[in-house]
């Protein structure tokens, strides 16, 4: 099968949840013997075409990196038309998020499938929450969030009608399925559930590296880990506000934050103002292959996001290491974490609730072990790379039937 994948982000654009999912899917499809081409936005240096892991990657030089704007629609279509002339017609076009919807019916009989890793409707709700959170103390942040809210509103109004015409639409969570049905009017016959998958061999239970653990927690206390790009919507500031309460229960606990971003300075200042800097470690960005060591070293994992969107892959990665997780009860997260079965949930933005759940884990070793073991079983059963590839191929087959019927 000749498969065209369209995504704003690719392997040259750094780390991120969407990048990881898109690349894992492309590589998984290629490993099954399919011919896969990923068309993505420009890169700052290097060739415009490369082959990685059996996947052809086409970078559109006229399009800004990581932003499917400007010449994106024209150049992505032109690229696929050129490759079809050179190598043969496409069997399916896969739009990662909304960026490939302009190709619906571009070639009669060729299905267009869209995977939604989040929706503009969810972004509207997230930005509204950030505006409320930023006022009145941080008016500049509120103004920025308001501008983004207006941008997302325009996209929501424009992309909804296009999405309904896709031959197949993939929902990556139970909660997202409801949004796609109720807010986007997607035909249930064209809507499919395929959960995101992770490499459960790379991320798997293993002994902690004694040297790393000693470096992070020299006094030998428990380690709570967060892995995130440091933006306001990731909610790390709420975990920091919870930390003094955790320290009252476990004086020698350490909060380790892996990741970087524009919000880091404010987070470091918040840690100082709360008087907890000595027990908080800002590690910065860590390469993918080094992440498992941090998961193995921790005693609990926290993801306090306030973003109403998909579930962060870092949650799945921690669960794959059989670590107990405390996560926000928001958006699609409950698809990944069932309360008190394979993790603990807390209301988004509620520092007191986060502190209570973290303290509960650190005080109850049996509970932490039970949740961690069940978390690993959840990953193996529902969030493997193989299951994601299998489910996607089934969607391609169903979408091809609809495209052929439309052509007849």
Detailed description of the structure:
This protein has 408 residues and is α/β, with parallel strands linked by helices. The chain has three domains: 2-117 and 165-197 and 385-407, Glycogen Phosphorylase B (Rossmann fold, 3-Layer(aba) Sandwich); 120-157; 210-382, Rossmann fold. It has helices at residues 17-31, 72-87, 120-134, 139-164, 174-182, 210-216, 236-249, 264-274, 291-297, 313-320, 333-336, 351-363, 365-382, 385-407; strands spanning 2-6, 35-41, 49-52, 55-60, 92-96, 112-116, 168-171, 191-193, 223-227, 254-258, 280-284, 300-303, 325-328, 344-346. The chain has an eight-stranded mixed sheet with strand order 3-4-2-1-5-6-7-8, with helices on both faces. It has a six-stranded parallel sheet with strand order 11-10-9-12-13-14, with helices on both faces. Helix 3 packs antiparallel against helix 4 (139-164). It starts with a strand and ends with a helix. The mean pLDDT is 92.
Spell out the blueprint of helices and strands.
Blueprint (H helix, E strand, L loop, with lengths): L1 E5 L10 H15 L3 E7 L7 E4 L2 E6 L11 H16 L4 E5 L15 E5 L3 H15 L4 H26 L3 E4 L2 H9 L8 E3 L16 H7 L6 E5 L8 H14 L4 E5 L5 H11 L5 E5 L6 H7 L2 E4 L9 H8 L4 E4 L4 H4 L7 E3 L4 H13 L1 H18 L2 H23 L1
Parallel strand pairs: 1-2, 1-5, 2-4, 5-6, 6-7, 7-8, 9-10, 9-12, 10-11, 12-13, 13-14
Antiparallel strand pairs: 3-4
Helix pairs in contact: 1-14, 3-4, 7-8, 7-12
